Each structure stands twice: as C-alpha cells, then as structure tokens.
Amino acid sequence: MCRRHFLLNWGLLLGALLMPAAAAGQEPGGKIVVLNTARSVDRYRLTEEEFRRQMGGQTVLDINLEESDLDAAGLNDLIARERPDLVYSIGSQAFHLAGGAAGGTPQLFSSVINWQRFPRRVGVYGIANELSLSQELSLLRYLLPKAVRVGVMFDPKFNRERIAEARTYSKDVGLTLVEKSVDNPVNDEVDDALLELLPQIDILWLVSDPGILVDRDRVEGIFQAADEAGKPVYAYSDVFVGFGASLVVAPDIPTIGRQAATLAQSILRHEKPGEAVQFPAGSNIILDACHLGKLHAEYNQDALDSVNRLIECR
After folding, report:
1. Neighbouring residues of 90: CB distance < 8 A, sequence distance ≥ 6
2. Structural contact between residues 241 and 34, judged by C-beta atoms closer than 8 angstroms
3. For the chain: N or C, fewer Cβ within 10 A?
4. Which of 251, 269, 253 has its CA nearest to residue 53?
5. 26 and 52 in contact (C-beta within 8 Å)?
6. 3-class secondary-structure state, position 47
7. What is 164-177 written as a DSSP string?
C-alpha cells in the first residue's frame, strides 16, 4: 500500500472511531472520578476539557492533584463514599495514585509516559501517551529517507520497554537504532553520552523521558549540541519546535480526550474494548524545512502532503 493511501485510510478510520458519543446510541449512566495530575499543564487540561465535552451531561467528580493533598487512603474513602463507575487518570502521578487505591473500580488512563512500566491489572484501559512505534518510525523513514542511523538516549527506568520494541520496528522499516542508556542521568553523564552518540548518527530521536529531559536547561543543551554537530532532531511534541526540532510527529491532544470519552462510554455500557490500551488515533506532523536546509539534511518533497505544518525560510 502506498503511503498516501495509508494516510487516507487512517483518516477514514479516525473519523469512524471518533464519532460524537451521542451518535453511538443513548448516553449510558454512571459516575466518573477524573484525577488530573496537573491542570496547569496544557496537554492535561486540554485532554480533560475535550473528554468532558464529549461526555456531555455525565456526572463527573474532578480532582486536580496539584491543588489537592489527596493520597491513596483519601481516594479509597472517596471511592467508598461516591461509588463511581469509572476512575479516569490523566498523567502518570494520577495513574499511580489510582492504581494503589481504586480496587475493583474500572479504570481509564491517558498521558502516562511508558504505561508498560506500571503493573498490568484487569479492568484497566487507556490511551497510550505515544503514537505507535510503527507509525513514528515509518513516518521518520518516509519524511527523512536519508536519516538511516537514528540515535536515542533514554533512562531505562522510564523507557526500557519502549526502546526494546523500537529495535524491532527500526529494522522493519530499514533504520538502524543507535542507543545510549543513561542509568544515572546527571548532567555530565548525559553530556558525555550525547557527545559519544552524535558522531555515529544521522538524526537524534528525542523520546518522552523525564529522566533525560529534566528541565529546560537540559533540553536546550541537547539541542545546542545536536545543532553544533549538524544533526537534526526528531521530537514528539510541538513544544520542541521552539528549541530547534527539525521534525515533530505528535499525538493530537484533543483527539486523545475524544478517544478517552469513546472508551469510557464503552466501559460504562459494560462493553469490553477490543484493545485494553489504544494508541492515539490522531497526529500532527511539523517539518522545519528551513532548519533542515541549514543542516544540509534532505527531506522527501513528495511527502509534504502528509505534513500539517511546514516551516520555510523567510
């Protein structure tokens, strides 16, 4: 199947998946507790807003953990008192709290970094934080066909499982993954790993990793080193465009909220979803052709119809 047909078919599938909840039939009853790790974080706030919009008049008890001292015991008390039909966690902190307290109440999660590192439990469903590796790596291969040696730094506490999967998918699409595992990612260790990695690669792949990307200074240092080495950076969020990412393939945040609502409706109807954890159905692709030109890196001109935002030199 050619790439364009793949993207068209994906769009049709997305449209069918994300029909408004009301169109799927009568809205089921039930009470939902929403635990939001931090509503001040845009992606968490937008996800919850879209989720609640799709759920319409559903009874929702929402808790913003950054403004609450709720702990596992407190959540247990709340669940015993309110007897919700579903607990929806947004972000890793909320999911960790719910996992220790929700008991037999069905659970739903989204925006959890590398959800595979958490214990798997029956009755827990979710939307993955990242796009499928096959989609991420296929799009990289398609958009930047000359970037074959892909470098990645990661903290194994957060991304051991995801990088292990990436090895297989990389081979499938003709990429070579060059890995640097940083077990104790203090500044010097990350700097040393990066300086060793950059000469070996065509592009640096930035993955969602709170062990590596600890603060703005660390992120700026990574991008500066990549730029000085003449290597483009492939990132997972449009936030990194301002730092100098040449290619971004990111999940569409409102779509995650809509997917979560669709999944919640199924759970409330006591319908078992086909997949316990779904990948995000929508994506935003940003290509900085200007920056790629400055790095003398080529991109696939025929692939531009799949790009949502093209940045050109002015």
Report:
1. 34, 35, 36, 37, 44, 47, 48, 109, 110, 111
2. no
3. C
4. 253
5. no
6. helix
7. HHHHHHHHHTT-EE
Q: Is the fold of 9-129+253-282 the same as that of 133-250+284-311?
A: yes
Please tell me the total number of residues recorded for the chain in this structure. Answer: 314
- Pick from 122, 150, 47, 32: nearest CA to 86: 32
**For the stretch 75-86, what's the b/e string if a residue is b when 16 or more beta carbons lie within 10 angstroms of its beta carbon?**
beebbeeeebbb
Q: Does domain 9-129+253-282 have CATH number 3.40.50.2300?
A: yes
pLDDT string in tens for the chain (314-residue length): 444 444 434 443 444 444 444 433 445 568 999 999 999 999 999 999 999 999 987 888 999 999 999 998 999 999 999 999 999 999 999 998 998 776 689 999 999 877 777 777 788 999 998 888 999 999 999 999 999 999 999 999 888 888 999 999 999 999 999 999 998 777 788 999 999 999 999 999 999 888 899 889 999 999 999 999 999 999 998 899 999 999 999 999 999 999 999 999 999 999 988 888 999 988 899 999 999 999 999 999 999 999 999 999 98
Write down the architecture of domain 133-250+284-311 according to CATH.
3-Layer(aba) Sandwich (3.40)
